[in-house]
Amino acid sequence: MARKSDTGFSRRQFLRQAALGGVLLCGWNMSAAAQLRGLRVGRHGQGVRLVFDLNRRLAAAPVIRSVGEVLHIELPGIQHWLGRPVVPALGPLQGGAEMNESAAGVVLRLPLRETVRWHSFSLGPGGGASHRLVLDLMPVAGTAVESSPSHPVAGAGRPIVVCLDPGHGGHDPGAIGARGTREKDVVLDVALSLARLIRRTPGMRLVMSRDTDRYVPLMDRMHLGLAQRADLFVSIHADAFPERTVSGSTVWALSQTGATSAAARWLARTQNAADPLLGDVQSGVHDLMLNEVLINMTQTAAMNAAAAAADLMIRGLAGVEDLHNAAVQHANFVVLRAPDVPSMLVETAFISNPQEEQRLRDPDFRQLLARTMHDAVLAHFVNAPPADSAWSATRHVLGKAENLADVAYRYGLSVEALRLANNLPHGEGQPGVHLRVPIMGA
Questions:
Q1: Lowest-pLDDT range, 242-246, 287-291, 317-321, 344-348?
Q2: Does residue 381 sit in helix, strand or coil?
């Protein structure tokens, strides 16, 4: 059976990706020989699409064959390429790859999770793109080599996957308050508390970018949500600004058309600059990679879902912390750019404000933040449970002898999560009101 491979990205692999904007980046010699300049991998329907960037058309058609659990792709006439291919676990691909020279050119070997059928075609240069060989791999139903592991749940369907991303870490402390409070420590503690709540929630599975004090490159964080097919990605930070009187919580979602304010542009630059290998990623090759790989992906739907989840988050935080912005803000944070993962970034409070720094140093306040964020996550999935997940939603009519606490307890929610999901004001609901409530699959 195929062995599950590590889907993480090393720093060297990331550097290749950032340099040319693809999943595989290859160097090339500027001689007349055929050159493989890059390989990009993305979803395509139920399968995946591989796009080989070339300096010229292949000398002959590629030779593709399946040998056991490995797909062999021979590219004739290729003489120049560099580096070990970096291919994520995606669709029928197990993850990982091997490239070797052959008598005719090079052979790329891709481990498979299931049997595939394939279709290839060539594209000439145009629109700033080079020659390309496009290879679509589609799974053949009922021929799985090895299924992806999942945690069992009592209900039908898969668990909902929530990815938590505590910002900064390791050599990157993030913002530092006047009393020496480090952002990386505060947000890790909040995330670990939130993680415990998610682990106890039936029908949910947790993924974390880090659970210790270590540094994770920004692109690795983004790719984690993508590789794990997360239903929600939440990056947790503590805000900072040169003016120490600025205060309040802010929730951010991805913008592809521009930041909502000058402050948004400033904050995006400071957060993205935490990764020295990225530099100014708001423009340039990374956007080129996104524009190419997002073909046939569902980023619009993901961004809409992220906006809805972020709105619930900001409404929840309004109950425990002053808001810096009462509406969801938008900027081009790198960690929010996974194409088909609803993603948000939560700035819990301004660590640069001495009063708010003191609150962030309080363990009880950090626990309150975690519980509030958990309420918002649950409310989001009450309103929009993934169709193939263990969760579903139903309606409960509030009886004359019931209160909201009774209903919340019955369905495994807090009262605040029930309020958020149903947009209820504080106070008891009226008998006969229809409440949207979850069936959590357990």
A1: 287-291
A2: helix
d(C-alpha 433, C-alpha 45), whole Å: 41
Within 8 A by CB and 6+ apart from 407, the residues are 396, 398, 418, 435, 437
CA distances, 132 to each of 27, 193, 206 (Å): 16, 47, 38
**The pTM is what?**
0.59
The strand ranges marked E within 68-186 are 70-76, 78-80, 98-101, 105-111, 114-123, 131-144, 160-166
Contact 378, 413 (CB under 8 A): yes
Predicted local distance difference test score (pLDDT) of residue 270: 53
**Three-state secondary-structure class, residue 310:** helix
| Helix %, strand %, coil % of the chain (to 5) | 30, 30, 45
Record the tokens describing residue 170, joined without a space. 């390791």
Per-residue pLDDT, 41: 86
Burial per residue of 222-247, b for 16 or more beta-carbon CB atoms within 10 angstroms, e otherwise: bbbbbbbbbbbbbbbbbbbbeebeeb
Rounded Cα distance, 54 and 257, in Å:
30
Given a contact cutoff of 8 angstroms between Cβ atoms, the answer to whether 144 and 114 are in contact is yes
CA geometry: angle 323, 166, 254, nearest 5 deg = 60
